[in-house]
Amino acid sequence: MTTSVRRPPRHVPGWAKVIAALVVVLMVLFAGIRLAVLPGVKDLFGTETHDRSGPALLKSIQEMSRYDAASGNFQVVVDLEKDARFLPDAIRGTRTLYVGAGTVDAYVDLGRIGRDDVRVDGDRTSATLRLPHARLGRPALDPDHSYAVSKQRGLLDRLGDVFSDNPNSEQAVQKLAVRHIGQAARSSGLTTRAETNTTGMLRGLLRSLGFKEVHVSYGS
C-alpha cells in the first residue's frame, strides 16, 4: 500500500506578483493602442448616442403685439460660496466659479396703444403717436456660452453628490447669473435705445405711406 505525500502550496514571491501585474497593464495598454491605430477596429467598441425623447407638446399660445427694438448681450462671473457653521470647508462647503452669458431684449408693447394715442391731421400729412415706455424682457441664459470655471466641494458634499439624483447641480449659480444680468440690463440704458429704435422705425414706415411729419412720444 502506497501513501501519497501532499505537498504544501507553493508560495509566490512578491516580486513575481508585481511583474505579473505589470504584464497585465502592458497588455491592456497595448490592446488599446492597437484599437486606436487599426482602422475600423475602434468603431466596433465605440459608443452610440440615441435620442429617445418624446415629441414636444404645445402647452399654450400667447399673442405677441410687442416690437423688440433692442437686445443686449451680457456676461457675468458668479462666485458663489456656501459654508457650514463649525465645520471647515474641506469637510462641508462648496464654492463655484461660474461664467454666465445671456441676452435681454427691450421692447415696446404696441398692443397698449389706445385710440386717443394716435392722431392724424385732415390731409393725412402729419401724425402724432404716443407710445408706452419700453420695457425689458426676461434675461435668457445662453447655455452654449455659459460654463463653470471651477468647483470646490467638501468631503460631505462629494459624498452627497454620489447618492444624489442631480449631482453637481448648477441651478443656484445659474439663477444668480440671471439675476445679475437683469440688474445690469436695468442700468444699461437698453430701454432708451429701444425707444430710439422704435421711433426711427415708425417714422420710416409712416413716411413711406406719405406722411411728411411724424411725432412720437412716450408716456402712460
Concise summary:
With 220 residues, the chain is an alpha+beta fold.
Walk me through the topology.
Layout: H1 14-37, H2 41-44, E1 66-83, E2 93-109, E3 118-120, E4 126-131, E5 135-136, E6 140-141, E7 147-153, H3 155-162, H4 171-186, H5 190-208, E8 213-218
Parallel strand pairs: 4-8
Antiparallel strand pairs: 1-2, 2-5, 2-6, 2-7, 3-4
Query: Number of helical runs?
Result: 5
**Arithmetic mean of pLDDT:** 77
DSSP, total strands: 8
Give the proportion of residues in helices.
25-40%
Shape: elongated
Q: Could you tell me how far the N terminus lies from the C terminus, measured between alpha carbons in angstroms? A: 119 Å
Tell me the major beta sheet. Answer: 5 strands, antiparallel
SSE string, helices as H and strands as E: HHEEEEEEEHHHE
Q: Low-confidence runs (pLDDT<50, min 5 residues)?
A: none
Structural class: alpha+beta
Question: Can you describe this structure?
Answer:
- It is a single chain.
- By secondary structure, this protein is an alpha+beta fold.
- Helix content is 32%, strand content 28%.
- The chain is built from five helices and eight strands.
- It has helices spanning 14-37, 41-44, 155-162, 171-186, 190-208, and strands at 66-83, 93-109, 118-120, 126-131, 135-136, 140-141, 147-153, 213-218.
- The strands form two sheets. Strands 1, 2, 5, 6 and 7 form a five-stranded antiparallel beta sheet that branches. The chain has a three-stranded mixed beta sheet with strand order 3-4-8, covered by helices on one side.
- Strand 3 and strand 4 form a beta hairpin.
- The chain is elongated, with a radius of gyration of 34 Å.
